[in-house]
Every structure is written in C-alpha cells, then in structure tokens.
Amino acid sequence: MPEKTLTPATENAAPERERPRIRLARLRDFALIPAIIAIAIVGQIVNPIFLQGDNLINILQTMSEISLLVLAQTIVLVAGKMDLSLESTFGLAPGVAAWLTVAAGSGAGLGLLPGAWSIPVTLAVGVLIGAINALLIVRFGLNGFIVTLGMLIVLRGLLTGISGGQTFFNLPASMLYLGSALWLGVPASIWLCLLLFAAGIVLLGFTKFGRALYAIGGNVDAAKAAGIRTDRVLWTALVGASVLAALGGLLMSGHLASVAAAQGDGAIFTVFAAAVIGGVGLNGGKGTMFGAFTGILLLYMIQNVLTLAGVPAQWIQALNGAIIIIALVLSRLTGGKVQE
Amino acid sequence: MGVTKRYGETVALDRAGIRIMAGQTHALVGRNGAGKSTLVSILTGLQAPDEGEVRFGGEPAPRLTDRDAWRQRVACVYQKSTIIPELTVAENLYLHRHDLNRFGLVRWGSLRRKAAELLATWSVDVDVRLPAGELDVEQRQFVEIARALSFGARFIILDEPTAQLDAAAIARLFTRIRTLQEQGVTFLFISHHLQEIYEICDTVTVFRDARHILTTTVADLPHGELVAAMAGEAAGLAESSARAAPPGGAGVVLGVRDLSYGDAYREIDFQIQAGEIVGLAGAAGSGRTELAETIVGLRAADSGTIEVAGRAPRPGSVPDALAAGVGFVPRDRHHQGFVPMMSIADNATMTVPDQLGEAGLISGRRRDRLARTLITNLAIKTPGPGLPVMGLSGGNQQKVVMARALASDPRLLVLITPTAGVDVKSKEFLLGKVEETAARGTGVLIASDELDDLRLCDRLLVMFQGRVVADMAAGWHDHDVVAAMEGVRLDA
Question: Which residues of B touch A9 (CB under 8 A)?
C-alpha cells in the first residue's frame, strides 16, 4: 500500500522521533521471545519436568515436521503468494514413495521400485507439485489461493486413492532413517529442522534471492523495474516450498514408521497461524524466518504445557484455536500495527 | 540528447515526436488522455512503439529486454511510488544490486554505507535505515531521483512530481532540479500546474489528442497561448466572475467553536453561512487537512464543538456527519475517494444507500437512475454507470468523488485539495460545480494550498502551524495569501 506513505503531514515534523521507530521495527523479530520465556516459566510451575532435556527434545521433535511447512509457507508468503496445498504435499509425497516401494501384498503397496528409491521419489513428487502450482499461478496467472486450494483437495484425494484410504506400513529402511535416527543423541529431524531454519534465515535475510522475494511481495512492479526476474523467482519459491513440504512429510513418515491417508490433514491452519503470529504478513513483503520459527515454537510450547497440565485431550483443539487468536492479539499489542 | 519518435496510427500516440536537449528542463503538458503517459512508458522502455524510434544522444535505444541499458540512460519518478515500503531506504536504493561477500551473501554494512554516501553525494537528507514506507512524498521522490542517478542515468522524467507536495516542498524540489541541471542532468517535467512550468522549465512541449501540438521555449509562450494549445480553444483558466455575495442571514450551516486536536491545530473558531464558500488555506502541516477531516468526522477533536446545520454530529463519526448533511471530497482520491474496482454507480451512490431501496436492499435500477443523473450533472465521460472507476482518467475519477459528495444533497460540502492531479479543463469544471452547489444554498469549505482552488471563495481563512492567522475577504492578493501560509508577515 504505497498510499500509506502519502499520509500525515505530521510525519515530517520531528526527525528525532525516527530513531525509536527503527528499533521497534527490529524488535518485531523478537516480539515473541518474552512470550516464549513467559510460557517456559508457566510450564515449569505447572510441571517441573517441562524444562528437562527430554521434554524440550520432545517439543522440538513434535514440531520439527510441521515446522518445515512453516518454513516453506514463509518463503511463499514473503513473496506475496500463498500455498495451501503444502499440507497435502506433506502427505502425498511420502505416500507415493511408499506406494511404489512397499512390497506388494502388504496393504496397497505396489513394490515396483527398490526401497532406496523412496527418498528421491518423495522429493521428485514435491518438485512436480510445486511445478504444477507455479505453472498455474505464475505462467497462467491464476489466483494462487484458489489454485492451491484446488490442489489441496486433489492431492488429498490422490493419496486416498492410491492408498485405498488405508495406512502404508513396512516402509523401506531409507524412509525411516531421517525420521528416527539419532545424531549425537538428538533426533536427526531436530537437527534438520534447526539447520534448515538457519539456512532459511540466511536465505531470506542475506541472499539476492531472498531479498528479491521481499521486493516481489512488497511491490512487484518496483521489483520488475529493478531488474528482478520475478517469474523465475516465484517458480523457485513455489517449487522449493513444495520440496520442503515433501521433506517434512518424509520426516513424519519416518517418525511414525507409516504413511496415513490423512497425513498432514488440517496442518495448514497451524502453519498459517504460526507464520502470522511470528510476524509474517499475509500480503507479502513482511516478516522474517526467525519470526516464523518463534511462532511455531510458541504454539507447540503452549500445547505441551496444556498436555502437562493434564488438560483432557478433547479440549486441546478448542484451546489451540483460542491460543492462536490470543497470540495474534498479543502480537498486535507488541507489534503495534494493524494486521492485514 | 535528441529523442525523436513516431508512433503508429494508434489512438494513444499518433506520430508524436519530442526532442529533448541535453542539460535542459523540458516541460511536457497536455490534458488527461493527451498521450503523456504513453510517451513516458515508451521513453523508459516499458513499451515498444509500433512505428518510429527512440534515440538517446544520437544512438538507437537498447532492446526492451535490456533493462540495465535503459536504466543507464533514462529514469522516471512516477506519481505512483516504485519503492518497496517494507524494505529500508538503503535496500531500495540498491535493490538487486546488493553487495555480496565471497559466500554470495549480502553485506548489509557496506550496502548501508554505500547508500548513505549516495544520498550524501546528492545531498538528500534521509536516514537509510528507515523503512521506505515511512518516508513522506518529498523524501521518497528525492530517494527515487538519487536511485536513478546511481544507475548513471542523466535523463530523468518527473511525472507530476508536485501533485502531492506543499508549496515549501515544491520550492525545495525546484532548487534541487536546478542544482542537478547545473551538474548536467536533463529533466522531462510533466505537470498540470502551468505556473510551475514557467518557473522551472526552459522548453515546453504540448500534446493534445495523442498529437504533438507545439514545442517552444517557455519564455516565448504567453500563459494564455499555452492553455489554448492544451485545450484546443482559446480558453484560459477563466477568471472567476465576481460572485454575488451570499445573502446575509441565510442561516449558519457550520459553526466551529474552540476546536483543538493534538499538535495539529488549536482553538479554531469560525462559521459558514448557507451559500457561502470559505477557503481554508494553509501549507501541508498547517493543520488545514486535519481540521477539515475533523469536520467530516474522520477524526475526533480533543476539545471544542462542531455544529452542522444546527445539530452537533457525534465527534469522530462519519455516518453521523453525513446524516447531519455533510458532503466530503477527501484529500487523496486513490486512498479515500473511491473503490477502484467498483462501478461508477456504486461509488457515486456509496454515501446514500438509504435512497436506493427499502429495508437495506439495494435496487440496481434505482441506483443506476441516480448514478445517471449524477453522471450527466457532472459530465463524467463514460459509456455507462457500470464502468469500474479505475478505467477513468484522473479528472473523471475526481468527478466521481465529487458526485459521491453531492449525492446526498449536502448542506455543507467539505473539499480537501479537490483539484490535485486534475487537468485544467476538469479543474475549471469541478470548481464551477462547487459554485453552482453554493448557489443552491449549500455552505462550502475548501481546504487547499492551491490558489486556483481558493479563487472562488467568498472568504479565506489562512492557517499556519495549527492556528488561523488571517481572515481575508474576497479580492485578496495572491502574495498576501502565500505570505500568510508561509507564516511571513508582509506588514511587519
């Protein structure tokens, strides 16, 4: 909204007022840190095992798979697009790999490929879905929200179709490895999640590609005028996001040693909530990867505290929704600006 | 630098040519739809001409795909911002030209330093760490000019740069243009304000109906002839005929008492009679806009009272102000004036849903009938009431905003800079409508720093730093008003 800049005449009044505004903008990145600390303290009071290593690893482990969706969605959101189909990719990509590699006879497996192919197939499915999204959104100029909504339903249906609505078991060893291995005593999926987020912070903050995403999300005409190949950048972002979703799905399958037909179902709401709570704007050009990470971390910490507090499982869902809204209210108070 | 270009038999530009000499400030004028924007997009390499060619300094223009080559030759500061509001000023300056370290990562420190140096070279006083969205229009333009210069471009197109600036900022912009011109920068200056062209430009080119009409040095062209060339008829901006003074004792439509609002203005007292046109003059930042916005209910005053036609609308409530009989033309039509994708009919009748049908339902037929009356009344050029407003030219868009304000038959009409970015002909028309409305007994308040807008006023209140510093009757002299707006006392 460039018009915003054309407003109050009072703005050219006091240059000395500009300093704090810079700091505030930077602080926005860390806006959730106080909340995270507060939840940690509350958690510790509720149940002293909260801050123990095992529990912390448990929190990180449960969020590691879905956090890759947050990572992927953040990249897409910063560029001013949306990808709802990520949650279905999360299920379908490992689903297809299992379908092709699981020996025939057990469930819906075909056993066409040796087990070593499972990871390449998973990632290839991610690339393919991302390319279809990009083709429809970037090349043909269709509305990204509706395209990916359609894809969400189609891909979910495909997974139900190939699996016959059942769960794939007896996955090949290579599919199980990433989701179940321990590196230095900590689950590999946690390492991967942290590494990828670190890479994401660098990608968005310090590379030409990342800054091009912000430029496109902020003002696509200005980005074009600056010589950015906007279409190419968007292709990369959409394909990359799908691959990350496929990888997240792979971690999940390895962790659970199965691919359920409903894997990832409904996850996209949590993903959007985490991104928005973390300060990523839904209209593009705003937010950081670190903010998105704190968003998903906060959500999972709260869930963990609720579980430790013995809240009945039937109530967790209602509380989750309430938490998302409360977190938004808090970030509106700390961020100060009207959310779009 | 010579630029010649011919263009096919299209409507947008018909074999129009322009030649701009290096080191000059060249004005391009013409009414809305004369082909100025088309020429700009061809000169900046965004569109290819169907016929004819563009030459820079004798060499043929680069291919359209070679953006870098274009940027080294020509840059345009558009009315619409081409900065990215969420990014810092530094990053906007060096977007996609980031300094990279050997790992291919952006070196933010050196980027900021370079940006600061660049701005210092062209003496632009802006903190490069600020998000660009927080700059005002003036700073934004300077930043865009500096960015253009950093590409090596020495030919800069300014598309209506003064439309949203106040007098002091315009003066600063002109000083900067002169300085840059001395350093060898060539400008193409597009403006609706003829006075500015006489002030700053060496040469002027007039376009009309997609054709080139004339090019001559500014000094050789009297004001009247320039307007005639633009309008295609010998019509100057008609000097406002002496208005009959409004009948005394016609009743007060607006009474403002002791109104104060934060830092913007303090202790404002005035009244408007029915049929009276009152001007609220003042530079940007004088509080005139805030005061006008308070009267229409966009803001709630800290203290004091407003009475419209004998009733006091709830402070800060636009619906209540509308119900009390206020019609409003806001400051920035793109921002508050209309919904671009909605039709003329929907926009023009937005203020009067109650007249469109019963029980909250809207009758399309009734709406279109009302809209047609308004379209005829305001001479809006459109094939029908169903056209989205974004398809109209600037002047016609402003007429739609005016139609919206008049749809409710207001007792009090409040206008803020009603003719910003509007061509001469539409300007005359809009101001004529204002007079017509006043003649029917509506009180009018015009908040502006544009003397042409204020000329038809019966009375002028001049604001400076939040206070009314002068109250002038019709027949005031321009220099008195300007002096009062700038806070200078001529008699002191």
Answer: 166, 284-286, 289-290
- CATH, residue A99: 1.10.3470
- Nearest-Cα distance to chain B for A199, in Å, is 12
pLDDT tens, position by position, B458-489? 888 888 878 888 888 877 777 677 777 766 55
A148-152, long-range: CB < 8 A, 24+ apart: A148/A82, A148/A83, A148/A84, A148/A85, A148/A86, A149/A84, A149/A85, A151/A84, A151/A85, A151/A88, A152/A84, A152/A85, A152/A87, A152/A88, A152/A268
Tens-digit pLDDT profile for residues B374-413: 888 888 887 778 788 877 777 888 888 888 888 888 888 8
Q: Give the closest-approach CA distance of A287 to chain B in angstroms.
A: 9
Taking the CA of residue A95 and the nearest CA in chain B, the distance in Å comes to 36
Model confidence, pTM:
0.70
Tell whether B315 lies on the interface with A, counting CB pairs under 8 A.
no
Of A273, A266, A272, A269, the C-alpha closest to A326 is A273
B85/A4 Cβ within 8 A: yes
Our count of domains for chain A comes to: 1
Q: Name the architecture of domain B252-486.
A: 3-Layer(aba) Sandwich (3.40)
ipTM of the complex: 0.71
Asked if B3-83+135-231 and B252-486 have one fold, the answer is yes
> Domain B3-83+135-231 carries which CATH code?
3.40.50.300
